[in-house]
Design goal:
The chain is of the alpha/beta class. The chain has a single domain, classed as DHBP synthase (Alpha-Beta Complex). The protein has 6 helices and 11 strands. Strands 1, 2, 3, 4, 5, 6, 7, 8, 9, 10 and 11 form an 11-stranded mixed β-sheet that branches. It is globular, with a radius of gyration of 16 Å. The N and C termini lie far apart (49 Å).
């Protein structure tokens, strides 16, 4: 992979500088790849609607292109442009866990980018378009996505198969010179990933255990 200069912005998570956030959002608008802190680990992201930018994430991480990325949003209302699902259960889960450490697997809208969705059912392997959506409870991540104005395709900022990064130094050890901009927002709380909960099937199923427990999810949907 060709080496490029990785720019670094230091931003205080307690009081994010909106002018610096705006600079980072401009990187996304130009089709660049940006690394930023979330409420779980550091994530690597790009404009979800820019196929070439999203493809770079797979190349940077040396990630299997068959493994879909998450889509990060800053407003709950953005869900209506991503999924056709409308239900009381979805409303309860969104109200309880967004923003937070839950990734919801939902049926994808027909016109939502196929390069950030899964084309197969996780359990059966049958064709079925879904997308994993999360709203991170990190002020830098939320302000960045909000300023950018569109969903961000993202995953953990590490080489595939390696531990998830908790701070900027760990990100640089993995990926320095592979991506365009790093937002150094200090260490993340821990490296426990989000819980992945598929509500596109009945009954819903947990695809990956994480911070939010099965008992919490059951209480929310019952």
């Amino acid at each position: 992979m060709r080496y490029i200069k990785t720019h670094i912005l230091k931003i205080d998570p307690g009081n994010p500088d909106l002018s610096e956030i705006g600079k980072a959002a401009n990187f996304l608008r130009k089709g660049k790849v940006v690394v930023f802190p979330t409420d779980t680990v550091y994530g690597i992201g790009a404009d979800a609607y820019n196929r070439d930018a999203v493809q770079r994430i797979f190349e940077i991480k040396e990630r299997d292109s068959g493994k879909p990325l998450q889509v990060l949003i800053a407003r709950k209302s953005e869900l209506r442009h991503i999924t056709s699902l409308r239900s009381d259960m979805l409303d309860r889960i969104v109200s309880r866990f967004m923003p937070g450490t839950l990734t919801l697997v939902l049926p994808a809208m027909e016109d939502f980018p196929k390069w950030v969705s899964s084309e197969r059912d996780y359990a059966s392997g049958l064709p079925r378009r879904t997308v994993g959506v999360r709203m991170p409870a990190n002020p830098i991540a939320l302000k960045l996505i909000e300023c950018f104005g569109a969903p961000v395709a993202a995953t953990s900022a590490n080489m595939s198969g390696y531990p998830d990064p908790r701070d900027a130094d760990e990100v640089l050890r993995y990926l320095d010179g592979r991506f365009d901009l790093l937002i150094d927002g200090g260490p993340t709380p821990d490296n426990v990933p989000s819980t992945v909960f598929d509500i596109s099937v009945n009954p819903p199923v947990i695809l990956r255990k994480g911070k939010i427990s099965e008992e919490e999810l059951k209480r929310a949907i019952e």
